[in-house]
Amino acid sequence: MKPYTPRRLRLFAALCLSLFSATASFAHAPARAAAPSDSLAVPADTCQAALADPTPLPAAHSDLNDTLPHIHPRDADGRISDYTVAPGVTWHYDKPKPFRWALNIPRDLGQFPGYAFRKENKGTLLGLSAGSVALWVADQAIIDWSQDVGKQLGLTAKSTQRTLFYVPFHVGSANLPFEFNVPDNLNSTFYYLGDGWTHLAVASSFWIYGGIKKDNRALRTSSELGEAIFSTGLVVQALKRLTGRQSPYVATKDRGEWHLFPSYNRYQSFVPNYDAFPTGHLATAMATVTVIAENYPEYHFVRPVGYGLMGLLGYAMLNNGVHWASDYPIGIAIGYGFAKIAVRNGRTRVEDAPTDPAAAHGTGWVRPPKRLPWYRQGQFSPYTYGPFTGASWSLRW
Description:
Pfam families: PAP2. By secondary structure, the protein is α+β, with helices and mostly antiparallel strands. It has 2 domains: 82-89 and 350-394, no CATH class; 99-346, no CATH class. It has helices at 6-25, 44-51, 64-67, 100-116, 122-137, 139-153, 186-192, 196-213, 216-243, 264-269, 281-295, 302-319, 328-346, 357-360, and strands at 82-86, 89-92, 161-167, 170-171, 174-175, 178-183, 348-352, 365-366, 379-385, 388-394. Strands 1-2-7-8 form a 4-stranded antiparallel beta sheet. A two-stranded antiparallel ribbon has the order 3-6. Helix 9 packs antiparallel against helix 11 (281-295) and helix 11 runs antiparallel to helix 12 (302-319).
């Protein structure tokens, strides 16, 4: 019998490792028949000796994990809650309760100033301000150029839609009808990308898919879309009613007039005369794209496709005279900020398990603790102020 040379020892080591891997992979498979007498048999002490050889073995499949598809296991309830989106990055999503997102809007509004006006955002805020001013200077030229291009391309500047159904609804003197319109020309189709029905359809699609597949990430994405879009809409509407900028198609002078702090009745009497700044369509579109892209980072096409559609929407609003270019930067930033806040509050990073096998409990991951809703996280504390004694309730955004 030939002696075991270092080369043969390394080959035996590789064979031992292969047998060990196969055993681990098929630990629960039925027992196989014994090997025939003339098959290769490797003594256990030989394997141990080969493994003790310090010479490294080639890692032929070291990049195997990079090529495997992402696998999202189901929990005991048959739901998918943990998602590995990149090496070492796993997010946990709880199943959202129906319409809980509406209760999160006050929390998001409270968190927005602290998120937007952080010290590290100083450069971004300066850039938004400078960009808005630069676009304001060129607003009239940009509008004229956009509409000239539209004429050359044969795009109808006027935004026209066909009403499929209309249900009148009034709150006091405010007219808030429930209607569903569809575009009837190409420019209106681009403009429709920012319509509320478009975002409702996107959010509903995630909700339906998540319900059928028991996919918590899809359900949470739908919930976050509602949360981010409505929060964005509240802030955008507040700014519109404070700044009162004319839309281009009703402007009485170049770049439009600003009617600061118009009264409620004055605003409602002729909305296009006051609601140009900032853009609500691009703000909600940015919120939608950001929520989806943040929750599905492994799908790299989401942002390019989303931003491309936003570009078409932005051009359509210049061509039909609904918005000025300087209305865009602040609106886009608002939508982005509320989307980031909604996603941040809607998922939890799963940390690696401890190196001690006894502490890992065999799961490989440390499941994040279940969090209470924000409105149940307040703290009561007693206070004494002069002759007054009582209790206060504090909530940290």
